[in-house]
Amino acid sequence: MPNIARPATIANDRQAAARSVCIRLAGEDDFDGWRDAARSLAAAEVPADAVHWQVGDAAGDLFASPASEALPPGNREIRVSKRFIELARGVLLHRDSERFSLCYALLLRMAEQPALIDDRADPMMRRAEAMAKSVRRDMHKMRAFVRFRSVTDESGDHYVAWFEPEHHIVRANAAFFVNRFAAMRWSILTPEGSIHWDGETLREGPEAVRGDAPGDDPVEAVWKTYYASIFNPARLKARAMLKEMPRKYWKNMPETALVGELIATARQRERAMITTDRASMTGDRTATLTALREEATGCTRCPLYRDATQLVFGEGPGDAAMMLIGEQPGDQEDLTGRPFIGPAGQLLNEVLAAAGIERDALYVTNAVKHFKFTPRGKRRIHAKPDAGEIEACRWWVEQERALVRPKVVVALGATAARSLLGRTVTIGRERGRPIELGDGATGWITVHPSYLLRIPDAAKAEEEKARFLSDLKAAYALLG
């Protein structure tokens, strides 16, 4: 609870006391403290211009008494919409020193004018919306431009990143990184403070400087090679790129060291692409996929590599127009090193043939490249990959997509759908409709063939098999 101070000499005069009310918050992003204080202030009918908001030990108002005496209890009940609460959460992460006062003033107005939340012409609302938008954009930049570099300590691999936020977003963004990199030990260092994840517990640390983060690591040389190989000069829009990825972030990202040269030579490379024989291009992609596969065999991005027999990479033409993404290798795939050759793969082949689709023309891969299982006697029982394992392997799937460049990507099952879209989705809600993907391809979601094998009722199984066949035909038709 924040500290509310006012002079004791004017305790019986609420309006006079309001002239020197001082609120001390625990931190720059202390939304809970602001909300509790704002509720008490509004109930006591304290006007916005009578409140001085102070963070931590920062210098306060010279005319505010340091005495800690609670405001007289107020009878006014304040009710605002959830939309305002969400707006305030965003605004209070902004760097603007007036954000606490702005939100409190809006709170008082919202209590009298609930429709104000929809008034885009109101100057105060416009300012708040702009601040919240700036915060959302900064949070997106952090998620997009953080680059982890590997270091080794007494506990093994530790991934460290440096980022310079524009606003007070570090703690608010922590949950995103915990969910995405749950299986990694990582730290994100910023001038605002640091966050550290050990695989189980998230903790905060002090401010850092750029020199506290490591420099290049060996993986970055490989990544730069891949980045240069998948850079498409024909799709380059330099102004749009600079708008989405300002130069201030370049120094923290390995691939941006290449951007200047890639932009400078884009026209020449585009002409070369146009004049290069398609067969040669396909050969280049296949060779790069082979190199990517070889690199992936040493992957330790999540713990699944420890128990699996081997990594199971994708296979198919380097210029396949359609890509299928499954969940993970099964027992037989783990032993042979090839995707979709077990019972589910045999059923998939049967349905593909019925749909008139040649499997050899498809690029077939999995969202997770190592077999996750639970031992049960001599058998290995399939276990569902968790969010951290999916995200750890998503990097490889995205490289496969970037190299093959399929026009249609079919996700088979919920795990594959999460890998493709980067979020949890419901198959029943997303199934059977085209989804525009960020790289220009079309996504399509359906069930995994193993689902059909688990249906006990024969009639129901045939019904679902027919529906699966219809899904694959519809996805294939998107190729035109």
From TrEMBL:
Family indicated by similarity: Belongs to the uracil-DNA glycosylase (UDG) superfamily. Type 4 (UDGa) family.
Gene3D superfamilies associated with the record: Uracil-DNA glycosylase-like domain
GO biological process, one term: DNA repair
Pfam families: DUF4130, UDG
InterPro entries: DNA_repair_put (IPR023875), DUF4130 (IPR025404), UDG_Type-4/5 (IPR051536), Ura-DNA_glyco_family4 (IPR005273), Uracil-DNA_glycosylase-like (IPR005122), Uracil-DNA_glycosylase-like_sf (IPR036895)
Listed NCBIfam families: SAM_7_link_chp (TIGR03915), UDG_fam4 (TIGR00758), UDG_fam_dom (TIGR03914)
Record PANTHER family: TYPE-4 URACIL-DNA GLYCOSYLASE, TYPE-5 URACIL-DNA GLYCOSYLASE
Residue spans crossing the bilayer: none
Keywords: 4Fe-4S, DNA damage, DNA repair, Hydrolase, Iron, Iron-sulfur, Metal-binding
Gene Ontology molecular function, alphabetical: 4 iron, 4 sulfur cluster binding; deaminated base DNA N-glycosylase activity; metal ion binding
Ranges for domain Uracil-DNA glycosylase-like: 313-473
Protein's name according to its UniProt entry: Type-4 uracil-DNA glycosylase
